Amino acid sequence: MEEVNNKRQGLEFSSAFEVREVGKIKSVQKFIVLALGLPSCVSGQMVEFSNGVKGLVIGFTEEEVQILVLGSAVDLKAGDEVYNKGEFLKLPVGKNFLGRIVNSLCEPQDGKGPIEPDDFYPVFRDVPGVMDRIPVDQTLETGTLSIDAIIPIAKGQRQLLIGDRLTGKTTVAVDAIISQKGKDVNCIYCCIGKTYSNLLKIVDILRDKGALDYTIIVSGIASTSVGEQYLAPYTAAMLGEYFMYNGKDALVIFDDLTRHAWVYRQISLLLGRAPGREAYPGDIFYIHSQLMERAGYLKPELGKGSMTFFPIVEIQQGDVTGYISTNIISMTDGQLYFSTPLFNKGFRPAIDLGLSVSRIGSKAQWPAMRAFSRTLRLEYLQYKELLQMTQLRATGLSKEAEASLKRGEAITQLLIQDKNQPVEMERQILWLFALNLGVLDNLSVAEIKKFKETFLEKVKEQEPEIISELRERKELTKEIAEKLRKCLQRYFEEV
Ligand code: ATP
Ligand code: MG
User: Fold this and answer.
1) 202 Cβ partners below 8 Å, 6+ apart?
2) CA of 417, closest atom in ligand 1
3) pLDDT tens, 252-270?
4) If you measure from the C-alpha of residue 152 to the centroid of ligand 2, how many angstroms do you get, rounded to a whole number?
5) Residues of the chain whose pLDDT is less than 50?
6) Is 422 in the pocket of ligand 1 (CB under 6 A)?
7) Predicted TM-score (pTM) of this structure
8) Is there an atom of ligand 1 within 6 Å of 170 CB?
9) N or C, which end of the chain has less CB nearby within 10 Å?
């Protein structure tokens, strides 16, 4: 009866009516709307325009509210109404998002129908405090030997991937996703400002490798609105938080934050905020650190979930001293530096082991791996130095120098890896075990390649329990080492 009365009076609310504030659009400048009214809204709140498009309150002038349009601003015009329900931006999250492609507002983009959410989470969330976190103690297996052995990454760590264009940054990140298969780590790949075809390639690789089932793709590609591109990494972090706060592990890749910084610069300049260094606004540091702080490893009372971040930053001509790159280096726990010269020489993944660091990951490394990793980096760097010297003077090398060169060449052959073929930790340990015994030093490139491909299978045939024991104990016990030595002996007797 009440509803009928309401309709009769031309009112549209039913008995469950909602409170909202109504304002008016004063002007539309590309993707920014200036609105009048809305006296109670605060920064970070969500508003809705009369055509259903959403907006994010990002600032104020004395009279107007500055709203970033999260979608197309084409149909918005001065005089239109804008509604504020006093809500902060909350979006749907949940496990049903796995295997799907969504935009920054968590709306499906893959034509596979609606996604049933488990919950709604705020996009801009306060990060867990220091007391809610614990030190890292689990390793995140990336499937890339140079990383897992020398620059290990722990769950909950923030590791920057930095390098010039086309140096294999995305490939290493995607390989890390592929190698989470069967390891109960959910992945989120967030694409910012890249082309649609870039994104499609990645989706295809993930699908081929069976990695899409545990991955969410957040698409903030270049053809989406500026507002959506700005929001994309926060949405990705939020989708990861669902897993972290429910006691699971998540890996989030931001590809890439350079473009995110460009987008934010565009927004700030349009808002008339003063440009600072490299024309970026002063608060770009805050914008990125607020994001990076959301990674972490929670204490057991909170479920011991973790969220690992791989932000990617593109630089020019190997110069890491730019504003955005130095900022992000300072707010992450280490960086992988990708080098164009190494890439061109065929040393791929082109990670420069001299310039790359991981500040906390070694605490969580498998003891079996840690035993090798100390000497590996040293031997490799010494080899590089020696190589430079011998280019000047190739004759009359001492015996030790020659041995060093041979060892270095064997290490190089182990570190070279094909794209999208991540190597499991057990296999990596077997390789390094053989390397340490010196049996790879006199092999040719082809022989090492064959060894890399076949040795694990041989061990599995002969001593199947070693491999599972290695994964369980994460340690090279005396018995395992002894059995492995025998397997090696047999392998080299056969070939
Ligand atoms: P962009 O600057 O475009 O984002 P990027 O640094 O992310 O580039 P990728 O797109 O990962 O680089 O790789 C660049 C090219 O190098 C691709 O064609 C890729 O297939 C190739 N590539 C990357 N890693 C390897 C590898 N380990 N072995 C062989 N080819 C590789
Ligand atoms: Mg890339």
Assistant:
1) 170, 174, 189, 191, 217
2) 27
3) 999 999 999 999 999 999 9
4) 21
5) 1-14
6) no
7) 0.93
8) yes
9) N
